[in-house]
Structure formats: structure tokens, C-alpha cells
């Protein structure tokens, strides 16, 4: 899959079809507030468009099957798995990725809390964790432990053992957890 | 990523969607949340030539009908079911069963209709077939079965793992189905063929439009349990849905429905045990015995590495707890 393939305009004259043509569609996405007009094959996943077409590589892909949460982005405010979401399904919608969290190069309070708690080790799960946690905090400003666990249940981490991540969410929501790393 | 091309349509109504299904002679598939369909297309267990997206159609919110039943649009997302105050108050068992499906990101897009129409699963089926287990099994039009090599040709024992279906069956829910001849209504229970090759009695041109839960009887109690190893982002090893309702004396059983899912080609009911409970004055001993009887009545298929014995015991233990919970709720002890 290349950038060129994604943007190529298909031969639309040839409409009589027996075999599926997978004719490309023109879609508009708002990604982190920026408007993107692209032509994609129906089979393209949102993660392919975000990483390969738009070039935002903060979003990670791992299992490609919905089982790890690394590819989590916010679609109209909901945390979704970009590896099992067709890009054409997102036409006209607003997408936020991990790159949206920092402002003018300054990490968000949630990202700082992850650093404070040592909630990042290899970092591969982190963008997905951050997006799930962002969605959770937008719904509940002071989530309970049960809500945090349920909100992050779709994100696997092989390194941290999760406690540090849960603590980071408790810290940023002002629930009595203090930084351990600084 | 999906490695083959398919066409994509996005109709504005379910009627347009059925027309498209007819035109494509069943080679198309509906795309609801896509959380079951797209992973299956990735591993090419399913290879529809067209996807008909239901994404442009907004589901109606759950609502009470004049007769007291509750209608839920099949396009309702599971997250909206589990978080709906109305559903949690009126049919908490359905909210609970939606709450335990997959992980949060899955439930944000997965729909109730898609949950009911999900493909069956087995350890060998739902993975890539290009470097191991390459020879297609019966379910993929081949001539072998990996976990059950002794199976007769055409006998597939992949299991149906919906978490909401057992709850809907315990609630005696009906489903409305839109097809060529208009709308038909059938009990959710009768959707299942018992054949994992084609698990649902649903024509390729039909669409489930809504689920209707009839009025809850007085003196009603429910219990729901999903057995898993991790407790999140995981399919069930077994799931159990129990409905019990009592006579006015709040002791005598007026009716019972005991449903076990994820261990067979479709959800199973312990009909004999249900019948044996009706008319009895319920107590803990009796419910424990009912759990033993029901677990003997249910004959689980070993699946995903769980043996039949293990599943039997798991179902027995959790049926005891679920039946007791249902009784306590019916009696009003949880209030
Ligand atoms: C990591 C992971 C974990 C999961 N865990 C669980 C779990 O614990 N429990 C569980 O039950 N499921 C689980 N699933 C499976 C799936 O996510 C759910 O079953 C989900 O509810 C499917 O709904 P959907 O809207 O995404 O369906 P889709 O994937 O969009 O559709 C599934 C099938 O149903 C058909 N269909 C959809 N809507 C209709 C309709 N209205 N009428 C007729 N046919 C229709 C589609 O054509 C397709 O064949 C999991 C999936 C993943 C990837
Ligand atoms: S149980 Fe069914 S799906 Fe699994 S290998 Fe056997 S035939 Fe295939
Ligand atoms: S890469 Fe999307 S869930 Fe794992
Ligand atoms: S930090 Fe390595 S997977 Fe989470």
C-alpha cells in the first residue's frame, strides 16, 4: 500500500461490473482539526489513512484485529479501533489522534501524569491508552477505579502491569495520587 | 488490513439496504459496527463482494410500546445500551450483557443486531490461514475439521458466542426482521439453526430491524454471568442468563428461563429444569439442585481449549450463583 495507490482516481467509466471493482470514494475527514480530502478504496482502514496517507504515525498498529487497543483514536468523541474501522465509514467525521493532545509542544496534563507515574515503558500501548483515557475523562471528570478499569479494558500493555497507568488517570483527575517519578 | 477489493454502498434506509441485498443475490454483507465482520474479512473467513453500510441510518432510541414491551433498534450500539438509564432501569439484564461484550472501544461501535448475527468461532477458524492450518475446514468449504478430526463431513462445531443472545432469550424477546415479503416477527430463540455452518435462520437478504422485549412479569428476578479468564476484552467460555418470576407469595416459582450460551452452535435452554422449578416453593437447596440438573442437561461443546468437563463444572458453579441472585432479586432481597 502506497501513498499513490491511496490517492489514485479510478477509472469510473467502467461501471458494468461482475467482479467487485472496489471503486474509490472521495471522503473528507477532520483529523485533529485539520481538513483532509482524500480518495480511498473501501478496503482501506482508518489506521492506514492516518499513518500512511496523512503521515501521523503516533497512532500505533499491532494486532490489526481489534484485540489490543494500540490503534485507538477518537471518532466523534468515541474511542474506536482504527484497525477495524473502514476509512469510508468516517466520511465527514471528526477524528482525534494522540498528536492532538499536546499544545504548542507542551504535553497535556494526562501525558505528564503518565510520565509522573512511570506509566510508559516501551511506549507502544501509550497512544492508545492516552486516547481511551482522554475519552473516559471527557465523560467522567473523576472516574472511579471501576470506571477506569472498564474504560481501559480494551487496551493491552505488556510492560507496566497497568497499575501505573491507572494511577496516572487517578493523578490527573485529582484523586489523591501523587507523582512518583519526579 | 483487508487484502482484497470490495464494493461499498451506504443506503439511507433499511428498505434500500434490503433492495441492495436482493440485487447482489446475497453476495453482499451488511456492515453495522464491523467489529465481527471486518476481522473475519481480514482473515478471509468471509469474503463478501460488497459491503452495505448501515452507518447512515440513525437508530431510534429504546422506547416503551403501548403494551408495555420495550423496542430496541437493532442498530443501537452496545455502549448506548449499557449506558442508557432507561434500559438499565427497565431491562438491566440486557444492559449487563451488553456491558460485558469485548472491550470499551468495541462496544462504542458494535450494534445489537451485529451482536446477534455474529459468526461462530473456533480456535482454528478465526485466524490467518496462509501459513498454518492452510487447508480449509468444513466451515470454509474444505474437507476437514481441526479440533474435531472425527467429525463427519459437514459437521462443524464452532460455537456461537454472543453475550446478548442468552439474555434476550431469557427475557423472551422477539426480533423484527425486514425481508422481501415485509416484516416478520419471531422469538429470538428461534433464530438459531443448531448448525454452525449456517447458525441463523436468516436469509442473506433479511435484516434484523429491532428487538422487542415483552413486559417483565411481576415478581421477576434475573441473573447474568459471563465466565472469562481475564474479565475483559474476551469472548466467553460460557455465559449464563437466568430469569425467574414468583407467584404473589414471593416464594413459589411461576416461571423460569435458564439459558447458557457460548458453548454450542446457538444458545441452549435447560427446558426440563425450567419446567421442574415451576410450582415449587424455592429455596437455596432447590436452586442448587436445579443448577446441577441444568448443567447436566446442557451439553457443552469443548471450545477454545476448554474441555467439556471443565465447562460442565464451570456452568454448574455459576448457575448456582446466578439462580440464587435471580431468586434474591425476585424476592426483593437486593432492594
Ligand atoms: C477483540 C474482540 C472481542 C470481542 N468480544 C466479544 C464478546 O465478548 N462478546 C460478543 O458477543 N462479541 C464479541 N466480539 C464480536 C463483535 O464485536 C460483537 O459481536 C459485536 O456486537 C458485533 O456487532 P457489529 O455491529 O460490530 O457487527 P458487524 O461486524 O457489523 O456484523 C456482524 C454480522 O452481522 C451482520 N449484521 C449486522 N447487523 C445486522 C442486522 N441488523 N441484521 C442482519 N444482519 C446484520 C453483518 O452482515 C455481519 O455478518 C468481539 C470482537 C472483537 C474484535
Ligand atoms: S469446528 Fe468448524 S470452524 Fe472449527 S475447524 Fe471444525 S469445521 Fe472449521
Ligand atoms: S491494532 Fe487495532 S486493536 Fe490492535
Ligand atoms: S508500555 Fe510497553 S506495552 Fe505498554
What keyword list fits this structure?
heterodimer, A: 182 residues, alpha+beta, Ubiquitin-like (UB roll), DNA polymerase, domain 1, 2 domains, 6 helices, 29% helix, 14% strand, disordered N terminus, B: 335 residues, Uridine Diphospho-n-acetylenolpyruvylglucosamine Reductase, domain 2, Uridine Diphospho-n-acetylenolpyruvylglucosamine Reductase, domain 3, Enolase-like, domain 1, 3 domains, four-stranded antiparallel beta sheet, globular, binds flavin-adenine dinucleotide, binds iron/sulfur cluster, binds FE2/S2 (inorganic) cluster
Q: Using DSSP, what is the number of strands of chain B?
A: 12
pLDDT averaged residue by residue of chain B? 96
Low-pLDDT stretches of chain B: none
What CATH calls the topology of the largest domain in chain A is Ubiquitin-like (UB roll)
Order of helices and strands of chain A: HEEHEEEHHHH
Can you offer a commentary on this structure?
The complex is a heterodimer of chains A (182) and B (335). With 182 residues, chain A is an alpha+beta fold. Chain A has two domains: 25-100, Beta-grasp domain (Ubiquitin-like (UB roll), Roll); 109-172, [2Fe-2S]-binding domain (DNA polymerase, domain 1, Orthogonal Bundle). Helix content of chain A is 29%, strand content 14%. Chain A is built from six helices and five strands, in the order αββαβββαααα. Chain A has a five-stranded mixed β-sheet, sandwiched between helices. With 335 residues, chain B is α+β, with helices and mostly antiparallel strands. Chain B has three domains: 1-56, Uridine Diphospho-n-acetylenolpyruvylglucosamine Reductase, domain 2, CATH 3.30.43; 64-116 and 159-213, Uridine Diphospho-n-acetylenolpyruvylglucosamine Reductase, domain 3 (2-Layer Sandwich); 220-331, Enolase-like, domain 1. Helix content of chain B is 29%, strand content 19%. Chain B is built from eleven helices and twelve strands. In chain B, helix 9 (271-277) packs antiparallel against helix 10 and helix 10 (284-297) runs antiparallel to helix 11. In chain B, 50% of the residues are buried. The chains are: A alpha+beta (182), B alpha+beta (335).
